[in-house]
Design brief:
Length: about 130
């Protein structure tokens, strides 16, 4: 269940932001951290969690490390979520194909349009007031 590690890693809003910054391609920590309300060491810790979940990888580029998105963990998460989608679509199909009740049959109340300003009486039968 690697998708579980992915869900846990992406549960933190700052970590999601770090991950989303890598969408456009590999970046060093200093670029990822720019504008975030956390320190570069904190961003490095978030990247470690993302890396442990299989969401990012890193490689050396001179004296810095570049981080990039890894898609296999996302593919597993997508398969997990699509399982729910398949169930939802199947339920929708079942509801759409079910025979519809006719309006006005015995036991149904025809609710006509309400007159403007009309309101129901309170259950205690009293009018107005509080």
């Amino acid at each position: 269940m690697a998708y579980q590690a992915v869900l846990e890693a992406l549960a933190d809003p700052t970590r999601r932001e770090v991950f989303e910054r890598l969408r456009s391609g590999p970046l060093p920590v200093v670029e990822i951290a720019r504008g975030l309300p956390v320190s570069r060491p904190a961003v490095s810790q978030h990247l470690r969690v993302l890396k442990d979940a299989g969401l990012v990888s890193d490689r050396a580029d001179g004296n810095r490390r570049l981080y990039q998105v890894e898609t296999p963990a996302l593919a597993e998460l997508r398969r997990y979520l699509e399982g729910f989608w398949d169930e939802v679509l199947e339920a929708y199909r079942g509801a759409a194909e079910a025979p519809q009740k006719e309006e006005g049959t015995a036991g149904s109340r025809a609710a006509g349009p309400r007159k403007r300003g009309a309101s129901k009486r309170p259950r205690d039968g009293k009018r107005g007031g509080r």
